[in-house]
Each structure stands twice: as structure tokens, then as C-alpha cells.
Amino acid sequence: MAPSGPRPALPALLVLLAALLPGPGDAQTSVSPQVVILPRGGSVLVNCSSSCDQSPFLGLETPLTKREVLPGGNNWKMFELSNVQEDSQPICFSNCGGRQSTAKTFLTVYWTPERVELAPLPAWQPVGENLTLRCQVEGGAPRANLTVVLLRGEEELSRQPVPQLGEPAEVTVTVLAGRNDHGANFSCRTELDLRSQGLELFENISAPHQLQTFVLPETPPQLLGPWVLEVDTQGTVVCSLDGLFPVSEAQVHLALGDQKLNHTITYGFDSLSAKASVKGTAEEEGTQRLFCAVILGNQSQETRKTVTVYSFPVPKVILSEPEVSEGTEVIVKCEAHPRAMVMLNGVPAQTLGPRAQLRLKARPEDDGRNFSCSATLEVAGQVVHKNQTRELRVLYGPQLDEKDCPRNWTWPENSQQTPTCQAWGNPSPQLKCLKDGTLALPIGKSVTVTRDLAGTYLCRATSTRGEVTCEVTVNVVNLPSPQYVMVIIALVVTAAVLGTAGIAIYLYNRQRKIRKYRLQQAQNGTPMKPITQATPP
């Protein structure tokens, strides 16, 4: 078969033009602008047009509020969309030659969040424990451009996109609380970044919340105080604890039983010490709880001790008579607390208990004697002591003993002397020593001894309980003159020197004779006999 020839070119060109030139059934609808980003509640102008060469029917399909603006042409119309609240896709349509075509415009609404709020922080956060920060975001669009930044002061802790779902949306971050976080402000900030759309960066920030961190050691506070406390006496209670932060925020509660104690606190670098006075009362007699709590943040450490409040009156010393005459029988009694043990003048009672008794006949030496009653009481394992002393007065007549009033004094003439004579008695007697009834011996005073002072004196001691007398003699002697004493000393010294020289000469001559005798014996050949050394005269 022979190959066929080329086809005519005109029909093919007509087919191509028919395909390129739109006819009534191939008209296209277009919209301008195709993409719009606008603030919520804003308005936008949308132009719908058609490529139909006839007079098409143009319209805009949208639930939004619209109105046609400007007189449109044969194949275009302008619409104003107002109060746009959310994303939307209005559709422009046209009917041309019985066929319809459409075009969409994409409206994106942006708005900043209505509420950005950091969830409340704990009142107190322990140091070293995790702290979760929660930021809640309500509203805001478009979410794809919305970011949450969690802040400590100006420091960024976390940057996260806002979840697309959930209202309000929540963004969290967990941090480890430290001492440096005490007093720090935490907040969260939203960033709506539309700079890629030719707009700006919109920011909203929450109100800040201040964090308080603390350290409270696991060890209980140290409590010092009187573990036994007598009624109507005061003691000091001290409660202390180390390792606190911040120590200035710590509080102390001190109590004895139901009684809260007023205390003063002394602060150290990381320690405190609370001091209080505590007083025992008759109503609290018995076992009471001493309580101390150190409170910091929402935690506390406590210590409890037991205090025994007791009553222990001073024992009584009872004298049958506090003042008696010599020879009178005196009864001394010692009485104390029913549970006490007593000793009277160091001697325990015959039957151990709260009472002891002593009988004696008053003697002069008992005057001014102290009788002591010592009582001991065991309280909560501790032994406490109380004492009372009473003095006995014994009335007796004057006494002039020789040891207190010597009967004979011998004094050198012109020497300084002090006569002493002590009279005893109760009441105290008056003493006078007289010579010849008129010349008084100056008892207790320093005097220069003269011959006039020599003689015998009558000493008389008198009181309301009688009198007593004795005689004392004063002898005045002459001493040698100083020149006489010097002559005697010189003679004694001379005699001693001469005696020493004589002994030395004798010993020398004797030794010389011994040597001569031995020499003669050696020359004669006679054996030498030992010579016994004579004792020097």
C-alpha cells in the first residue's frame, strides 16, 4: 500500500483555536484577593469576575455579612464582607451559557488570646523538689502561629506551641526548685507571630506569681529546759534548730501543757534559737508536756519533752524555846514534805522519813549554836535539797577563863603592849580591871609599859545574871642598856676566836711530833706500831 499524503493545515488550526478561546461553556470564575489575613471583626473587599464573553450571572456564596459595593461591570462585581469573626472560604460563582464555575478566597482571622494566666504557685515550695508551671491560654488565632513562653523573671524556661485543641489550652514545664528561686517572679507570655504575613509580633503576658522556696531539715529541734520545776520558781527553755532557709521566715511555737510561752528568737545564718521563761504553778503540779515546733513553709518539725512540776516547801526547824537558861532541856524538831527524807544537824532520823527530833540540856557552849534541818526529795529521778537553820540562845552568867584572860603578864619597860582579857556570858558582861580600886588596866588598847603599870589588878565581869572576878598581875622588868649588850657580844666573839686558834695550834704540834717519831723508828729499823690518835682536849 502506498503511503498517504499530508492533510490540509487549516482545519487543524481551527481546532486549536477552538480549544484555546473560551466559549460560553468554558468561561472561568476568578476571585481577588485569593488569600486574606485580617483581624477578628474586620472587613474585606472581594472582587468576583468571570471570563465569559457574554453577560454572566455573578454572585458570592458566604455566611458572612456582605454587601455589593461599586457599580459592577458586565463580568465582575465587588463585595464587602464585614465583622469577620472566624476563618472562612467565601465562594465566587458565575453562570455562563448554562454552565457554572466557582473560585474560593481564603480568609484567615487573627486575634490575640483573651486570657493568658499562670496557674497559682504553691504557697511554699521545698528546695530540691520539682515544680510544675502551668500556663493557660484562652482564645488566640491562628494557633499555628501562637507560642507560649514560660519565664522566670526575664529568663526563658520553655518555649512551646499552643495546642490546637482544648479550650483553654494548657502548656506546662517542670523545673527543679532551688534556693535562688526564693522570691523569684514566674510568668508566661504568648507570642502571635504574623511577621511572615507582613504584620507584626503580638505579645500578651500573664500577671507574675512570686515563688517562695524553703529548706526545713528532717532533724527535730533541740529542746533544753528544766525537766523538774518547782512550783513558784522559774526556769529557762531554749529551742534551737540548724539548717533552715530562709531562716527569717521560720516561726516557733513553745508551750508547757496548755500554756503558750512568750519567747524571743535569735537568728543566725541558717539557724535560730528561741528562749522563753517558764514558771511552775500549783495548778500544773505533776507531769506536763513541754512542746516546741519550728514551722517553715507548709511543714514543721516538733520535739516533745516531759517536765515534772513539784511542790517542796522549805523544811521547818522548831525549837521548844529559842532562848533558854543554862541547864534547861531543849527539844529540836525537823519537819519536811511528807515524801522527803530529813537529817537534823547531819544526823539522819532514826526512822527514815520527813521528821527528826533532838533533845539536849542547854550549856553555855550551846549559845549561838545553829541547828540545821536538811531535806531531800526525789523528783523524776533527780534529788532536790532544801535546808533551814535556827539559832539557839542560852542565857548564862559571866565567865573569866584563864585562857581568855591570862593571870600574869611580864612586860619589858618602855615596850608597846596590848592587855587582853575576854569575859564571856549571855547577856554579854561588862569588864573592868582596877588596881587599888581606881587605876584601870586599858584592856584591848595599846600602851607604853611604865613602872606605874606594874601591880595586881582585880578584874570584874558583871551582867544581869551575876558577876565573876579574878586577879591579874602585871610585871615590868628592866632590860640591859645597848652599850652593855655590845660589850658582852664583843667578849663572846673574842673568846670564840681565841679558842679556835688554840685548837689549831695544838693539832699542828701533835702532827709534827707524830712525823718525827716515825722518822726515828725508820732509822733504827724498829717496826712501827700504829699510833692511836688522841682526842684533842
Give an account of the 3D structure:
- The protein has 537 residues and is mainly beta.
- It folds into five domains: 84 residues, Immunoglobulin-like (Sandwich), CATH 2.60.40; 100 residues, Immunoglobulins (Immunoglobulin-like), CATH 2.60.40.10; 88 residues, Immunoglobulins (Immunoglobulin-like), CATH 2.60.40; 81 residues, Immunoglobulin-like (Sandwich), CATH 2.60.40.10; 78 residues, Sandwich (Immunoglobulin-like), CATH 2.60.40.10.
- The strands form twelve sheets. Strands 30, 32, 33, 35, 36 and 39 form a six-stranded mixed beta sheet that branches. Strands 13, 14, 16, 17 and 18 form a five-stranded antiparallel beta sheet that branches. A five-stranded mixed beta sheet has the order 21-28-27-23-24, with no helix packed on it.
- The longest helix is centred in the C-terminal third of the chain and has 43 residues.
- The radius of gyration is 64 Å and the shape is elongated.
- The N and C termini lie far apart (198 Å).
- 21% of the residues are buried.
- It is found in: Membrane.
- ICAM proteins are ligands for the leukocyte adhesion protein LFA-1 (integrin alpha-L/beta-2). During leukocyte trans-endothelial migration, ICAM1 engagement promotes the assembly of endothelial apical cups through ARHGEF26/SGEF and RHOG activation.
- Belongs to the immunoglobulin superfamily. ICAM family.
- Keywords: Cell adhesion, Disulfide bond, Glycoprotein, Immunoglobulin domain, Membrane, Repeat, Signal, Transmembrane, Transmembrane helix, Ubl conjugation.
- It is a single-pass type I membrane protein.
